[in-house]
Every structure is written in C-alpha cells, then in structure tokens.
UniProtKB/TrEMBL annotation:
This is aspartate-semialdehyde dehydrogenase. Keywords: Amino-acid biosynthesis, Diaminopimelate biosynthesis, Lysine biosynthesis, Methionine biosynthesis, NADP, Oxidoreductase, Threonine biosynthesis. It comes from the Bacteria. Gene3D superfamilies: Dihydrodipicolinate Reductase, domain 2, NAD(P)-binding Rossmann-like Domain. Residues 293-315 are annotated as: Disordered. PROSITE patterns: ASD. The keyword Amino-acid biosynthesis applies. It comes from Treponema ruminis. Belongs to the aspartate-semialdehyde dehydrogenase family.
Length: 365
C-alpha cells in the first residue's frame, strides 16, 4: 500500500467519476486520496455528496466514502494530496480545457476522459495499444506552456474503441486501409446519467447522436498520426464515413464496419490472413503487463450471431475489442461486426490504462 501512487478524481460525483472511484478500489498501483467536484458538493463527505445517486451498483469504496469533496475549480487544493488526477469533468469544453491546464500548471498531470483537449495539437489522444509513441509530444507540451511536472493526456471518443484496434492491426501487418464505412449502435450509458429519456429509447432506435459522426470520422486520423515538430500531425487516411445511432442497450457499443484496402487486388489479404493478424495482435501494454491491459486485446467470435453486447462486452474484463461476422464485402473488400465496452475500455478503465502506461514510462516520477 505504501508504494501506491496517490491519485485524485475530478468530477468524482458524476457517472464516469464514480466508475473511476470503483475501478480504482483495489488497483495495485494507484490509490484514490483526493476527490473534487462542483461547488455544491464541496465540503461534504463523498458518501454524502453521492447519496441517492451512487450509480455503480456496489458499495462505495471504504477508503473513499469519508473523503471530503473539494471544489474542482481550485487546483491548489490538490497540491500535496495526489500525484496526478483523472479528469471526468462535466462542464463546457472551454471551461474544462482551461481547468485541466490550470492543474497542469500547478505541477499536477491530468489524465482526462473529457473531450476538450482531444484536438489540442500537443496533447496525446491515447489508445495505448496503438499510439503509445505519441507520449513523445508531452515534452514539447510542457516546454510550450512552461510546465515542470504537469501535462495533459486524453483518451478518444468511446465509439472509436470498437474498430480502431482491428484497423490498426491490419495496417501494421502491411494491409493499409483506404476507405471505411462505419455504422455504430451505441449504448444508452454513453449519454451519461440520466441520459436519453425512456420514451425515446424503449421500442426505438435514435438515428442521430450530436457530434458523434464527426468524432468517429476525424479522431482516428489523429490516433494514427505521428509526432512531428512538437505536435501531432494527423494521418492522411483512411477516409471514414460514419452513421451513429443510439440503441436500447445499457452498456456496449457495437459497430458494423466495411473497409477497402489500399492495395492491388493480388496483394489484398484473404479472410484467413485477416483473422491471423487479429488473433496474433499484441502491443506495448501487453509487453509491459500493465494491470488493466487485456491479455488478448482483440478477440474473435466464430459464432454467426456474435458479438452481442449482453454476452460479450465484459470479455477480458471489458477491455477487449470483440469481433465477429468477418466476410467478403460486395462493395469494398471485407466487412465485420465489432463490440467494445463503452464505460470500461471506452471510459474510466481506458483512462486508467492510459495512466498505467504513463507510469510505466516514468511520466509520474
């Protein structure tokens, strides 16, 4: 216990903040010692601040329930109480961006779940199995702002977790992708709490989620980009066209993916070769044996009716990308169905994996 790093959670009373609190309960590296939220929660014991709205379905961790909630708008209050913070802030983007920068300026690194800094050129937007090399930009970020120990790192939109690893695995194996069509079927938990009204979701599908299609089409280019001249330069492709829908599922985002390879016909992989790439894919988190890293980041289901959110979202403790229904596409080259757990890999547990990678690479020393 003495060797654990003390961490804080900003936005600790919200849905994602609560997931951070619960997922960190028995973490081998990190211990929650600081919680902060809005001024209306500040000054209360954590158990009082979340009374009647603890949403996780298990008891509040004993080490956290009596912590006094601080005002998240006061970064100085965190000094000496934690080494870094997880950001699950629920505010306007400009407010979040300014507040995360304020914590970094105080020497407190920020591992963020928020979207405010995803398009900041010198902020890495991490899926650890894919773009761990983007950590190199942090030195330039600190230099640019004049920060000593503080910095900001973020995770991408939850819907990208469904298809980015299988896409990246194919690219790394020498099968570049030219174009993709992605249709997402996103769980209601992705809208937060209380989320989408029941009258909109029961016996219904909502064929629009504000801002999601833009994120799906553009964030992948930053993730696949490279660090150049102190900033992250986006990849030129693939071209992505997306349709994002909300479906009556609690947890687990599904995506139907059609993709075309940027290769001559005789160089394109067979279905068997695609499956072999996915089956053998592992990356730095697996090499480092990070506590939250799945042993098998991509899992393929042979059954013709899988993956299914209810049955497959918790594969590898909710950290795997679960694939199925790989087949030839009459328009592009191949098509498949992908699933990821949006509130684990796509949210808090994905943020925790980012922090584990940062620790393993010495960014909290």
């Amino acid at each position: 216990m003495a060797d654990k790093i003390n961490v804080g959670v900003l936005g600790a009373t919200g849905m994602v903040g609560q997931r951070y609190i619960k997922l960190l309960e028995d973490h081998p590296w990190f211990k929650v010692t600081y919680v902060a939220a809005s001024p209306r929660s500040a000054g209360k014991a954590y158990k009082e601040a979340v009374a009647n709205r603890w949403l996780i379905g298990a008891n509040i961790p004993c080490d956290v329930k009596d912590l006094i909630v601080q005002d998240a708008n006061d970064p100085k209050a965190a000094l000496g109480k934690c080494r870094f913070v997880f950001s699950a802030l629920e505010m306007g983007k400009d407010e979040i961006k300014a507040l995360e920068a304020a914590y970094a300026a105080e020497g407190i690194p920020v591992v963020s779940n928020a979207s405010a800094n995803r398009w900041t050129e010198d902020v890495p937007m991490l899926i650890p199995e894919i773009n761990y090399s983007h950590l190199d930009v942090i030195a330039e970020q600190k230099k640019h702002h004049g920060w000593d120990k503080g910095f900001v790192a973020v995770k991408p939109n939850c819907s990208l977790q469904t298809y980015m690893m299988p896409l990246y695995a194919l690219q790394q194996a020498g099968y570049p992708v030219k174009r993709m069509i992605v249709t997402t079927l996103q769980a209601v938990s992705g809208a937060g709490y209380p989320g989408v009204p029941s009258f909109d979701m029961i016996d219904n599908i909502v064929p629009y989620i504000g801002g999601e299609e833009e994120k799906t089409e553009k964030e992948c280019l930053k993730i696949l980009g490279s660090v150049k001249d102190g900033k992250i330069e986006n990849a030129a492709g693939p071209i992505v066209s997306s349709t994002c829908t909300r479906v009556p599922v609690i947890d687990g985002h599904t995506a139907s993916v059609n993709l075309e390879f940027d290769l001559p016909e005789d160089k394109k992989p067979s279905l068997e070769e695609v499956l072999k790439v996915w089956e053998n894919f592992k990356s730095l988190p697996q090499e480092l044996k990070l506590p939250s890293a799945p042993e098998h980041p991509i899992v393929y289901r042979e059954e013709e009716n899988r993956p299914q959110p209810n049955r497959d979202r918790d594969t590898e403790k909710g950290m795997a990308c679960v694939l199925g229904r790989l087949r030839k596409c009459n328009v592009f080259d191949i098509k498949f169905v992908a699933l990821s757990h949006n509130t684990k890999r796509g949210a808090a547990l994905g943020g925790i994996l980012n922090a584990e990678l940062l620790k393993a690479k010495g960014f909290f020393d």
